[in-house]
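Annotated sample (chain length 93).
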Amino acid sequence: MSELSIIIVNYNAGELLENCLQSIKREVKLDYEVIVVDNASSDGSMSRCSAVFIDDRRFVFHKINRNVGFAAACNIGADKSHGKVLHFLNPDT
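Output written by the structure step:
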């Protein structure tokens, strides 16, 4: 179990998503996991980021085949999390 689960809902966030994930990897010092839930993006951001972070087991990518909305995607991320604390983060942060 991680101390912190960071849940990010992605929808066509492009380069912002990768920048956000790089920042988390660089700055977060706690035991953490990142769960990215992709809400049927069409910009390739999910596949680019999952390829960049493929070797880091702290990053989990879950693609949804249709846009289920922000709240439902947050719930999917929370359901897949293992952290003591859930932190919902927008990819443009």
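Annotation: The first helix runs from residue 15 to 27.
Annotation: The chain has a mean pLDDT of 96.
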